[in-house]
TrEMBL record:
SUPFAM superfamilies found in the cross-reference section: SMI1/KNR4-like (SSF160631)
UniProt organism field: Symmachiella dynata
InterPro entries the record matches: Knr4/Smi1-like_dom, Knr4/Smi1-like_sf
Lineage, highest ranks first: Bacteria, Pseudomonadati, Planctomycetota, Planctomycetia, Planctomycetales
Entries under Gene3D superfamilies matching the protein: SMI1/KNR4-like (3.40.1580.10)
Name of the protein in question: SMI1 / KNR4 family protein
Knr4/Smi1-like domain residues: 56-179
Length: 241
C-alpha cells in the first residue's frame, strides 16, 4: 500500500464492509437521485444509497483552504475527490457525510459552529466526530504540521474548556489515520469495545489482539500519546501468540 493510495483504499474497504453487512441505507427523503441505489427497494423511510464518483473540484478545495487559512493534508484532499458517500465504517472517527451538492456546506457549517469556541491560539479544522463518545469534533491540528504537509489528528473536547485536556491526541497524521481505519474496516469484529458480561474470554482475547495490532500501526499517535483514549472501552491489548 503506497502512501498516496491510503485514503482511497480506506474508502473502498469501508464501503465494501458496509455493503457486506447490508448497512448502506439511510432515512433521507431528499437523497440525491445520483446516490439512490435503484437495485434496492425502499424499506419504510429507509432508502438505499450508492457511492458515486466525487464531483469535488480544485476550486472547492481552494475555497475551503481559504476559509481554513491553511492547506488541507494531501490525503484528505484525495479522500474528498474520490467518492461521495453517506457514511463509512467508524473506528474512532465518523467523517461528515460527503453527499453530492451538500458536503461543502456541511463542512463550512461545522467549522463556523466550532471555531468561535476553539482554544485561543489554536488552529483546528473539524472534519468529523468521535465515534466512541460525544467528547467533541475530530480535527486536523494545523499547528502540528509535518515536513510532508500532513498534520496531527486530535479531538477538541468541549467539556474541560481552558485546561490542558481540551485538545486530545488521536492519530499522529492523516496517513496513519487512514491506514489504521483501513485495518479496522477489514476486521470482522468491533475490537475497540468489550463487555466482560456479553463477551466470552476468547472473544475478549481476540479483540485484544486486534487492538494491539491497531495500536502498533501508529506508535507515535494511537499507540503512543493517544493510547489511553483507545484502550478505555473494555478491551486490553493482547500480544498475538
Amino acid at each position: 500500500m503506497t502512501e498516496q493510495s491510503i485514503a482511497t483504499v480506506y474508502v473502498d474497504t469501508a464501503i465494501e464492509s458496509l455493503r457486506r453487512h447490508d448497512l448502506m441505507c439511510c432515512p433521507d427523503p431528499n437523497m440525491p437521485a445520483e446516490m439512490r441505489d435503484p437495485n434496492v427497494p425502499p424499506s419504510g423511510a429507509w432508502l438505499a444509497w450508492q457511492p458515486i464518483a466525487s464531483t469535488v473540484t480544485d476550486q472547492d478545495i481552494d475555497e475551503l483552504e481559504s476559509l481554513y487559512c491553511g492547506k488541507l493534508p494531501d490525503l484528505y484532499v484525495e479522500f474528498l475527490k474520490y467518492r461521495h458517500f453517506y457514511e463509512l465504517t467508524e473506528c474512532g472517527v465518523c467523517f461528515e457525510s460527503h453527499v453530492i451538492g451538500q458536503w461543502k456546506e456541511e463542512l463550512t457549517r461545522l467549522y463556523d459552529v466550532c471555531r468561535q469556541d476553539f482554544p485561543t491560539g489554536s488552529h483546528l479544522i473539524p472534519f468529523g466526530s468521535h465515534a466512541l463518545s460525544d467528547a467533541g469534533p475530530v480535527c486536523f491540528d494545523f499547528q502540528q504540521r509535518h515536513t510532508d504537509g500532513d498534520c496531527s489528528i486530535v479531538i477538541w473536547d468541549h467539556e474541560p474548556l481552558n485546561t490542558d485536556q481540551e485538545i486530545i491526541p488521536l492519530f499522529s497524521s492523516s496517513a496513519k489515520m487512514f491506514e489504521s481505519m483501513t485495518f479496522s474496516a477489514k476486521s470482522e469484529i468491533d475490537f475497540l469495545g468489550g463487555d466482560p458480561v456479553e463477551d466470552s474470554e476468547e472473544e475478549l482475547i481476540q479483540k485484544g489482539q486486534l487492538l494491539s495490532q491497531f495500536l502498533a500501526i501508529d506508535p507515535n499517535g494511537a499507540g503512543g500519546p493517544a493510547r489511553e483514549i483507545w484502550t478505555c472501552w473494555g478491551v486490553t491489548p493482547q500480544a498475538t501468540k
